[in-house]
Amino acid sequence: MDSIIVTGGAELAGEIPIAGAKNACLALMPATLLTDEPLTLTNAPRLSDIRTMTQLLQSLGAEVASMQDGRVLAMSSHDLTGVRADYEIVRKMRASNLVLGPLLARAGRAVVSLPGGCAIGARPMDIHIAGLEALGAEIELRDGYLHAQAPGGLRGAVIEQRFASVGATENVVMAATLARGTTVLRNAAREPEIVDLVRCLRAMGARIEGEGTDTITVEGVDRLHGATHPVVIDRIELGTYMIAPAIAGGSVELIGGRRDLLPAFCEKLEEAGIAIDATDRGLRVSRANGAVRPVNVRTEVFPGFPTDLQAQMMALMCIAEGTSVLEETIFENRFMHAPELMRMGADIEVHGGTATVRGVAQLRGAPVMATDLRASVSLILAGLAARGETVVNRVYHLDRGYERVEEKLSAVGARIERVKGG
Ligand code: UD1
After folding, report:
1. Nearest alpha carbon, ligand 1 atom 30
2. 123 lines ligand 1 (CB under 6 A)
3. 26 lies in the same domain as 64
4. Are residues 136 and 203 part of one domain?
């Protein structure tokens, strides 16, 4: 298994291009199942999670061609030959469950394994199930699989989600595009990836309003057609690389960066003393001289502080001048990076969903273990600021969500390399 070696201490300067959003792309790809015409995505990220979704769609009979070095995905679901998302694929990636809504809508049937994915909490599916049942689906759990069917087709309904789940919102909206009548989804997720999915569905002929608000209205249509859609930029990759100059010092321009994708995160970074300036091409982030100030963070649904940037923010707080408190409200068990950061000299105390971080003057390089996707990258960020060498082992999680992390960071002056493992 590959490792990444970071030697800390180099200030960063230059630019980093931000890729298309993994989480948007993972919802956009299953939308191909809704139509027998071609759906093409441009600005796709080149990540192992995208290859996993490609395999899953192919196992259902979809054609997926990866073009222009993976930047363009040309998909066609002219003939669906399967309706089963097997455990072997779903266990690698929870987002596999996003085929459930589209399969029900198009084929009237779906068999989807309960998910695995990052080990960051229980991650149930009850909100997805409640939404799809309200649309008329009958869903049973047998042998670890959800067996769903809608023999008479789906019909519109008023649905109130108990929590604004991103995945459940995506599944229900996709299913509702082909349901009979109108669906009103209340307490819908408002994340930019939902907005991107709705834009694509609309380009395919769906009738949807209210994306980006907490109420989404979908008027079902008889069929959807093909479209070409550019994937929105990855705000989590953006936020991660915004932390890089903040923690290492220096100034980096994030090409494609947009503040409106990360409003709460940008505010917190500025509160910590980091400068963020809009440029013609994106955002410039700088830490000229000043120390990093401690800030308290509570993760929330959009537009609040994203849970997917909590680990990276914790890495930054490890070198702040003072004490900060980070509260995780979205996932249980999402502080697995804390003990690894402590191996690097960080002073962190975790109680339930709250971590208290007392800043230290200097982190020290150490061998550490990547436990989940965002935890892995937080260790690399900490390594940029540490004295000596940090070896991040088990980086396969990283490759699920960050394309060529070592190339992007070394291009701005970081000393980082990948060592191929067996
Ligand atoms: C998506 C993102 C993930 C991000 C998360 C929260 C993708 C592929 N992944 O995950 O990176 O961290 O949003 O912003 O887009 N829950 C239930 N029942 C359900 C569904 C969810 O209890 O039926 C709980 C989950 O266990 C979790 C919380 O709700 O505690 C948030 O989950 P959700 O918003 O569904 O996240 P995902 O769509 O899985």
Report:
1. 331
2. yes
3. yes
4. yes
| Ligand 1 atom 28 nearest Cα | 330
CA distance 188 to 43: 26
**Strands 297-298 vs 282-287: parallel, antiparallel or unpaired:** unpaired
Closest alpha carbon to 35 in 106, 92, 90: 106
Residue 225 shares a structural domain with residue 326 = no
How high is the pLDDT of residue 394?
84
DSSP symbols for 19-43: -B-HHHHHHHGGGGGG-SS-EEEES
pLDDT(422) > 90: no
Using the predicted structure, report yes or no on whether residue 80 has a pLDDT greater than 50: yes
pLDDT in tens, 17-67: 999 999 999 999 999 999 999 999 999 999 999 999 999 999 999 999 999
For residue 338, what are the domain limits?
3-18+233-419
Does 163 sit in the ligand 1 pocket, CB within 6 Å? Answer: yes
Q: Are residues 311 and 330 in the same domain?
A: yes
Residue (of 167, 31, 144) closest to 85 by Cα position: 144
Query: Does 161 contact ligand 1 (Cβ within 6 A)?
Result: no
Together in a domain, 197 and 243: no
Name the residue at shortest CA distance from atom 12 of ligand 1: 308
pLDDT of amino acid 116: 55
Q: In what order do the strands lie in the sheet with 297-298?
A: 297-298, 323-327, 354-358, 347-351
End residue of a domain, out of 212, 230, 248: 230
H or E segment to which residue 84 belongs: strand 84-85
Q: Domains in the chain: how many in total?
A: 2
What is the whole-number distance in angstroms between the Cα of residue 1 and the centre of ligand 1?
Answer: 28
Structural domain ending residue among the three candidates 164, 197, 230: 230
SS3 state at 36: coil
Q: Is the CB of 310 under 6 A from ligand 1?
A: no
- pLDDT band with cut points at 50, 70 and 90 for residue 290: confident
Looking at the structure, do residues 193 and 244 belong to the same domain, yes or no? no
Identify which of 165, 237, 312, 373 to mutate to test ligand 1's pocket (most ligand atoms within 8 A of the CB). 165
Q: What is the CATH number of the domain that holds 139?
A: 3.65.10.10
Is any atom of ligand 1 closer than 6 Å to the C-beta of 23? yes
Which residues does the annotation mark as catalytic?
118
Across the chain, what does the average pLDDT equal? Answer: 95
Taking CA atoms only, the protein residue closest to ligand 1 atom 8 is: 23
Q: How confident is the model at residue 333 (pLDDT cuts 50, 70, 90)?
A: confident
